[in-house]
Each structure stands twice: as C-alpha cells, then as structure tokens.
Amino acid sequence: xxxxxxxTILETDGxxxxxxxxxxxxxxxxxxxxxxxxxxxxxxxxxxxxxLLDDEEARLIGEALRGLQAAVNGENCDDFxxxxxxxxxxxxxxxx
Length: 96
Known about the structure:
Blueprint: E1 5-12, E2 16-21, E3 24-29, E4 41-45, E5 48-53, H1 55-72
Antiparallel strand pairs: 1-2, 1-4, 2-3, 4-5
C-alpha cells in the first residue's frame, strides 16, 4: 500500500524538488505539476509530486499520518483524531 505524504518544497529546478515532511527530506519529481514554487505543499506518491495542497489539507493529512504511526506504536492517538472522540464515525454519503 502506498500513502501520499504532504511535503513542503525546499528548493526546485522545475524538474525535481527537494521536499521535507517531519524531518525527512527527499528529492521528488515535479513534472506532473506546473512549476510549483518553493514553500508550496505537495502530495507525494512514490517520489512524484502529484498535486498541490493548501496549508489546511496538508496539516490534516500530516496529523492523520502521525496518528496512524502513534497507533502502530501502541501510543495514545486520541489527540490526532479529536474530531472522532465521543461520536460514531459516519460514512460519506456516497458509501451509504
């Protein structure tokens, strides 16, 4: 299974970009995007930036990934999923 990472572009030459997420840096292709600027948030799959993210979407994806990591490590992950505490999760309309 592949997970997309919300990464921030640190530097770019228009073909590739050095990006970071939670202290990890990697060089990714930005050929699928139209010249994203330094500082832009991008969704990265298998070392390819596939789309731009706004700050809020990047934050939410990052928190979800951190929450999954906490759960895998047997740690309390409630803070990462605070919107689900005290209620039953609901299926999206298209899955009902």
